[in-house]
Amino acid sequence: MDFFVPNAAVYHSDVFVEMMNKIATQPCKFSMKQTDKALIVNVSGVQNVFEALFVLQGLRG
């Protein structure tokens, strides 16, 4: 199964590429899986929505 739909514009954006690079450099913290409808990024150690937002802000630069 491919993780990305090759023609989807979002997968070619600078923000997406930057996020994937950051996720790839921290395999103990992040894991990814794809369902039929979504690409899911799991972050270990996140206990609440505020911690999740903090991690997301860090991924975006």
Q: What brief labels describe this structure?
A:
alpha+beta; two-stranded antiparallel sheet; globular
Low-confidence stretches: none
Helix/strand order, N-terminal first:
HEEH
C-alpha Rg, in Å? Answer: 12 Å
Strands across the major sheet, in which order?
1-2
Number of DSSP strand runs = 2
Number of helices: 2
Sheet-strand content, in percent, reads: 15-25%
Shape: globular
User: What is the average of the pLDDT values?
Assistant: 82
The profile of the biggest β sheet is:
2 strands, antiparallel
Overview in brief:
The protein has 61 residues and is α+β, with helices and mostly antiparallel strands. Helices cover 36% and strands 16% of the residues. The chain has helices spanning 14-24, 49-59, and strands spanning 30-34, 39-43.
Topology readout:
Blueprint: H1 14-24, E1 30-34, E2 39-43, H2 49-59
Antiparallel strand pairs: 1-2
